[in-house]
Amino acid sequence: MRFNADEIVSVIQAEMESFQSELDVRQVGTVLQVGDGIARVHGLSSVMSGEMVEFPSGVQGLAFNLEENSVGIIVLGDYLKIQEGDEVRSLGKLLSVPVGEAVLGRVLDPLGIPLDNKGPVATTETRPVEFLAPGIAGRQPVKEPLQTGIKAIDAMTPIGRGQRELIIGDRKTGKTAIALDTIINQKNSGVKCFYVAIGQKDANIAGVIKVLEEAGAMAYTTIIVAGASSPSPMQYVAPYAGTAMAEYFTYKGEHALIVYDDLSKQAVAYRELSLLMRRPPGREAYPGDVFYCHSRLLERSAKLSKDLGGGSLTSLPIIETLEGEVSAYIPTNVISITDGQIYVQPDLFYKGIRPAMNVGISVSRVGGAAQIKAMKDKRVAGGLRLALAAFRELEAFAQLGTDLDVDTQARLDRGYRMVELLKQGQFQPLDVVDQVIVIYAANQGFLDKVPARDVQNWEKQFLQFLREQRAQVRANLAEKKELTPEVVPEIEGALKAFASVYKPGA
Amino acid sequence: MAEASTRGFDAGREHLGHVYGQALLGAAEKAGVSEQVMTELDSLVDDVLEKLPNLRDLLSAPKVPLEDKKRILDKILAGAAPVLIKGLTVMARHGRLDCVRDVRIAYRRLLNELRGRVEVNVRVATAVSDAELAQIAERLRQMLKKEVVLKVEVHPEILGGVIVKVGDTLYDGSVMARLDQMRSKTLATTEKELRAALERFVAA
Lengths: 506, 204
Prior knowledge:
Oligomer: heterodimer
Number of helices of chain A: 17
Radius of gyration of chain A: 27 Å
Strand order of the largest sheet of chain A: 8-12-11-13-14-10-15-16
Number of helices of chain B: 9
Largest sheet of chain B: 4 strands, mixed
Number of strands of chain B: 4
């Protein structure tokens, strides 16, 4: 084909010729006061709550507070360019963000503006940032698993597609690592991932991007950034914007996963805005509707009904606690909204149990229905939670130094090995088939002869052995997804065969 | 509104202005001098209080005795409508002389409402003749089906056309707005075409 320089000129000329100007009719107001990311505007008498407005500098805002004599606007952009007396125009539309396949692999701000120097987002479609969650008729129960690739989670607090599973714990206990592992494990599963970073240090976000890029996960992941230096309106809007981008796939019948890292910072940003807007403070100075702020966000995660295409949006909200205080306001709110929580604890983390998940108080209220049959089996993860709880009790008792009978000692030994087995390195997600086989091995006593400190080495060697020499076992289990009478002897055979080639302490 | 914004907005003052404005209008209507009071109030604010900030401060200062304030008011307002003098004296007694400007705004709004008039702010690029103004006013009267009071401002940066503001609604028919519209539309279309061309090129 031939290119023509006139092509562009002709496009512009045609555009000019066909241009018809319409009389621009808008509501206007005057800025009375501006600062701290908000503006107070006189006029705009028929503006609606949540409507977009535009300042002369091109900065946009959102009508947030409608009062008798003025309107409170949250400024989405540089509020320093706004001056007192500026004319504010209402735009008659709601805040929306660009959506579509083009956002995947990108790093965007909450308005959909690229931050990664990879050019504009090539899409024409947008979705409103605030969108009503599907109703009762639009949903169906969670039934498909979303594999995190983390043994402890997939076995004991399984997550289903459409579930909201909270990750809660103190700072530096590996909350983000769990979420990132889950994103990395979605490779080849068709699940589109969204990571919303709220109020985090930009250096940490850069680290996350690097990890995802190295793991090849950026191909199906979008990162929405409202860092610690972003004004509070951006931090407040970020999770809704990310959800809008993820919903595009959900309503197309596909599956999406969104991580909100973290919602406590979003609540703080919302508190800041509300206090500046002079909304009455409540408990811990949060406004009265901070519960609604989170519940309307997390209700948007759902498994849609067949009529709506059967898509799903799974969310992993993260909450940071202070000194393990889960009974603070925001943690209790979000615990009550979500379908379960993964509780990570610093003492476990420093003991080397990573992921530092406290099995006793971590739960998944709906994920069990989504677990594959093989994992749910009594011989695998079925009784694991209770067994581990019993082990912890026994362990505490054994520390008293009393003489133990043989049976108790054996149960203790098996517990130590199980705890070792559930440890897992960062960014090393494990396929669910492998998880089932190794947990089966530990439960059935195949690890009893392996020293506890060598369990991870055993696992590594065994999985390699399985892949290289008994690939058929994995393939059969992956196909049947159940511990059928045909599959079990195959697994046991592989375990026995491996016992002879296992090199301890290698 | 522009007046309110140059001094910062105060919901309390606006409310007070409304209360006193309504009372003043009621009294002036009874005496049949509302239009005269409007003119005098305008002149008091624009010609006296705006030009003599010291006098304004003196009148609003709580430390100045009431008698002194009354004497000053009588001197300034010699020959004004008795209703206005009485009204201002009442305000002085209540220590509300700092709200005179808010009273003026509220009074004008209420009077316009009462007479079925509407104040329209018209922005043009160059000064327009009275005939043209009359034409604009006539068109607006037909559109709004109300008597209009025009307030004309000249803003050369709008290049041409006219911007009409009725209440909080702005009808922007300026050349500047049209150019802006054209610019964003053309940019969007050109960007789309360029991208399509690039895709064709990559595909070919």
